[in-house]
Design a protein that fits this description.
It is built from 13 helices and 12 strands. The chain has 360 residues and is of the alpha/beta class. α11 links the parallel β8 (250-253) and β9 (276-280).
């Protein structure tokens, strides 16, 4: 048994010479292939004698040649498929049969028939090559998730909300990935995706243009941020404020081109109200500073205020109407996401949904 293990260990390179020419450049990769080879016991009844002397030294090219002949039942057709000559293919098959010590195909001038030993060998060869392809694909995907750069374009409410925690969690297992964040309004995020500047966008996913593919993650609601001593907090000590009640108070707001501002102004116009915007800022941190200084109150997405309130600001729910909008991830429809970006998107969705469940 020990002798057989040593023989199998010496056979590690036997299927790697052609199909995966660069795969053994990494020591960890070689280790994975050793474990894969050990997984297969090569318990062919026709190999037992030859294995006592040596493990078959076969290449991926030779295995593919056997599979092609078995598929086409013709050396001429198999040679055409493999883009080689018929004499070269015949020599390859003869070499495999010599190494194995068995005949894989019965040949005559008019037909090629696979033998019982050939059928058994073909089944195992197919399984081994397929497992190796899957393993190579998985290793490459894991490798690509361990290095590189992801460019994310995000609306400010997401960037100031859960996104930092998501990035921290993602990088804890992928320290070689650099995250480049571009903050902006909804229109800026769309343009970053359209132009290819960003790999992934975190924004509102309602009414998107055709060039965008999207994944809805949650429903974002809007709240009121105001100083703890503000008069609205004193009205019957409520935890909510209606939209009509905001008309009498100055607002600190994001730019008009932001989706947040348009949602709020649109809802007010529908109800026949005009809101009193006294200051417009471009960053959430600045907005909070203005509210804290008493310039006005602010209507913001609920996920944007975490960690920014401090002791002197509080949150009231905005009701009648209860404004909300779908939030999620977007990317260019015609662009396939790299493995690292797909991994980030999966983690983003998982952590966001967990956060929503905790709030419920």
């Amino acid at each position: 048994m020990q002798r057989q293990r040593e023989q199998r260990a010496r056979a590690v390179p036997f299927v790697l010479s052609l199909a995966f020419p660069n795969v053994l450049n990494d020591i960890s990769t070689a280790g994975l292939f050793i474990s894969i080879i050990f997984h297969y016991q090569f318990q062919f009844h026709f190999l037992h004698k030859s294995m006592r002397a040596t493990v078959p030294d076969l290449t991926a090219r030779q295995l593919h040649a056997v599979l092609a002949v078995a598929e086409y039942n013709s050396f001429i057709a198999a040679a055409a498929f493999l883009k080689t000559s018929q004499p070269a293919l015949t020599r390859t098959i003869k070499r495999v049969e010599d190494v194995l010590g068995v005949r894989l195909f019965d040949r005559s001038t008019r037909r090629v028939a696979i033998t019982a030993a050939g059928k058994e060998f073909v089944a195992v060869a197919e399984r081994m090559l397929n497992d190796l392809r899957i393993s190579i694909g998985s290793m490459r995907e894991i490798g690509e998730q361990q290095r590189g750069q992801i460019i994310i374009s995000s609306i400010m409410s997401v960037a100031n909300g859960l996104l930092p925690a998501i990035v921290a969690k993602y990088r804890s297992s992928r320290p070689g990935i650099e995250i480049l964040l571009r903050e902006g309004v909804h229109g800026t995020v769309l343009e970053d995706i359209r132009s290819g500047t960003a790999d992934l966008g975190a924004t509102y996913v309602d009414d998107l243009p055709d060039f965008v593919a999207a994944k809805r993650v949650s429903r974002e609601v809007f709240d009121i941020v105001l100083p703890c001593a503000h008069p609205l907090t004193k009205i019957a000590k409520r935890s909510f404020v209606t939209l009509s009640e905001l008309v009498d108070f100055p607002l600190v707001s994001l730019p008009y081109e932001s989706r947040t501002r348009r949602i709020i102004d649109g809802a007010a116009a529908t109800a026949g109200h005009t809101l009193h915007h006294v200051a417009t800022v471009t960053q959430f941190a600045t907005l909070m500073s203005f509210v804290r200084a008493g310039v006005g109150i602010a209507v913001v997405p609920s996920g944007a205020v975490a960690g920014l309130l401090g002791k002197d600001l509080t949150v009231l729910k905005l009701t009648k109407p209860r404004l909300s909008w779908d939030v999620g991830l977007i990317w260019l429809r015609e662009r396939e996401l790299p493995p690292a970006v797909r991994g980030f998107a999966i983690m983003f969705e998982r952590m966001w949904r967990m956060s929503m469940r905790k709030k419920e």
